[in-house]
Amino acid sequence: MTPSAQWEIVNPVALGRPRGWNNGMLAPAGGRLLFVAGQIGTGPDGAIAGDLPQQFGAALANVLRVVEEAGGGVADVGRLTIFVTEMSAYRASLSEIGAEYRAVFGKHFPAISLVATSALVHPEAIVEVEATAVILP
């Protein structure tokens, strides 16, 4: 297993306690910066996974595949940006989405942003996830 980035978590008291994310992640010196393009919920065959939670889990797994290919792991991810086409569906599926998250990222909570968008490039995609990671040599 590759060494994971030793992030300094930054959560100002004035912002309150974050739940399911961290407000800031300060990267260690000397790491290599990896920008992961937006990943959608496709499998190796290119087929889109089912509903929003399934697409979310598959998209996270695809993000992790890119990070692992670069020599890193879950703990090296410092930031996720999640794009969804239906915010109401996201809110209605929080329990299932949380289970999908934990199945891929466990208890590692980077800085996370959630953005509603009207559409994604793939017409069947309803969620896309991009990431930034720091991988130590």
In short:
With 137 residues, the chain is of the alpha+beta class.
Low-confidence stretches: none
What is the general shape?
globular
Q: Tell me the count of domains.
A: 1
Number of helices: 3
Rg, rounded, reads: 15 Å
Mean pLDDT value: 93
Remind me, CATH topology? 60s Ribosomal Protein L30, Chain: A
Helix and strand sequence: EEEHEHHEE
CATH superfamily: RutC-like
Assigned CATH class: Alpha Beta
The N- to C-terminal Cα distance equals: 12 Å
Architecture per CATH nomenclature, i.e. the level-2 architecture: 2-Layer Sandwich
Biggest sheet strand line-up: 3-6-4-5
For the report, how would you describe the main beta sheet?
4 strands, mixed
Strand content: 25-35%
Total beta strands: 6
What's the helix and strand layout?
Elements: E1 8-10, E2 24-26, E3 32-40, H1 52-69, E4 77-84, H2 87-92, H3 94-105, E5 111-116, E6 127-135
Parallel strand pairs: 4-5
Antiparallel strand pairs: 1-2, 3-6, 4-6
What does this structure look like?
The chain has 137 residues and is an alpha+beta fold. The chain has one domain: 60s Ribosomal Protein L30, Chain: A. Helix content is 26%, strand content 28%. The chain is built from three helices and six strands; from the N terminus they run βββαβααββ. The protein has helices spanning 52-69, 87-92, 94-105, and strands spanning 8-10, 24-26, 32-40, 77-84, 111-116, 127-135. It has a four-stranded mixed sheet. The radius of gyration is 15 Å and the shape is globular. The model has no long low-confidence stretch (mean pLDDT 93).
